[in-house]
Specification:
Layout lengths: L8 H11 L9 H12 L32
Length: 72
């Protein structure tokens, strides 16, 4: 298969979209694609280091933990 290296953000997103069909056949696809996804996701700010996420929990509210069963 001859694939050209994506040179634009749109081309990288198209590549990821095309490759996502193969994820069921490729073990650890999410781990391999993660670096590409991290550089193509420039429109969303990294919210994990904002003050909202760096506060102690409030004991007046329940803590809800949501997890993912994937191996990534």
């Amino acid at each position: 298969m001859n694939l050209r290296e994506p040179t634009t953000l749109a081309a990288a997103n198209k590549f990821l979209g095309g490759m996502s069909w193969y994820r069921k056949f490729l073990p650890q696809f999410a781990s391999v694609a993660a670096p590409i996804i991290s550089v193509t996701n420039l429109t969303k700010p990294n919210r994990k280091n904002q003050p909202l996420f760096l506060q102690f929990p409030n004991d007046d509210y329940p803590i809800i933990l949501t997890t993912d069963a994937s191996k990534v």
